[in-house]
């Protein structure tokens, strides 16, 4: 009879410890460090993923601006993603990111920066270029920051478009085009 009381006490203590651990884990996951998007929690908790949050050299590109010419540079969007918004290691609705383009020139030249959609750009994927037009002087290096975002759940119509676009995201390619004027 005494062993039965001891076993009940152990079971009650183990259940209480389990509940406390679940409560603490829930509070941690609810903090600002975590974003509840599909499988994102798993990737953040266990550190699964190929993309690094900092020091990603692929998020910086250099393009020479030449008067009277257009130069193109293909960009890998997945390499520019904000890891806090990553979903299943894919670009998807709810993700965003940014990258820098460093413009150089061996002469004074006016420039324009454009995003060129090569194929299958998701309709709701938006790009914002901080300095789309400007002037660069000889031997100057000018940094142009480009932010992108694919908003999550805009409305029912856009959600069905996002689902369609999400199926083709692996086929989406784009380039940065600099035009020297």
Task: Report on this structure.
This protein is of the alpha+beta class. The protein has one domain (49-180): Immunoglobulin-like (Sandwich), CATH 2.60.40. Helices cover 27% and strands 31% of the residues. It contains 3 helices and 8 strands, in the order H-H-E-E-E-E-E-E-E-H-E. The strands form 2 sheets. The chain has a 4-stranded mixed beta sheet, with no helix packed on it. A 4-stranded antiparallel beta sheet has the order 2-8-4-6, with no helix packed on it. The longest helix is centred in the first third of the chain and has 29 residues, at 2-30. The termini are far apart. The model is unreliable at 32-57 (pLDDT under 50).
For this structure, the CATH topology is Immunoglobulin-like
The average pLDDT value, as a whole number, equals: 76
- The radius of gyration computed from the alpha-carbon positions, rounded to a whole number of angstroms, is 24 Å
Q: Termini distance? A: 93 Å
Total count of strands: 8
Overall outline: elongated
User: Main sheet?
Assistant: 4 strands, mixed
Identify the CATH architecture: Sandwich
Helical amount:
25-40%
Low-confidence stretches: 32-57
Task: Indicate how many domains the architecture comprises.
Answer: 1
CATH class: Mainly Beta
β-sheet strand percentage = 25-35%
- Structural class per helix/strand content? alpha+beta
- In DSSP terms (H or I, runs of 4 or more residues), the helix count works out at 3
Output the strand order for the largest sheet.
Answer: 1-3-7-5
Sequence of secondary-structure elements? HHEEEEEEEHE
